[in-house]
Amino acid sequence: MTVCRRYRVSGRVQGVGYRFAACAEAQRLGITGWVRNLPDGDVEALACGDADRLLAFGEWLRRGPRAARVTAVRATDAAPQEFHEFAVR
After folding, report:
1. Does the N-terminal or the C-terminal CB of the chain have fewer CB atoms within 10 Å?
2. What is the CATH number of the domain that holds 51?
3. CB within 8 Å of 69: residues ≥ 6 apart
4. What integer is the mean pLDDT of 51-73?
5. How many domains does the chain have?
6. CA distance 80 to 26
7. Cβ neighbours, 10 Å, residue 8
């Protein structure tokens, strides 16, 4: 069963390759969706896939790449959407 979650990541997450690292991790996990920078400095991701894989992705978002300093990850359910791959926007 495909589940979709919207994540909002706060902290020092822009300018450290966070989006590209998140995209690589999502592709490794077989998750589809997208990730983008927000004007307020947060990063937003919409991910769809198996619930266990989304759980692993959410855990990765809390760690992030080495240079990032994640202070919070807020996750909310999202309406099911169909994507073919995970993309950086």
Report:
1. N
2. 3.30.70.100
3. 11, 12, 13
4. 94
5. 1
6. 17
7. 16
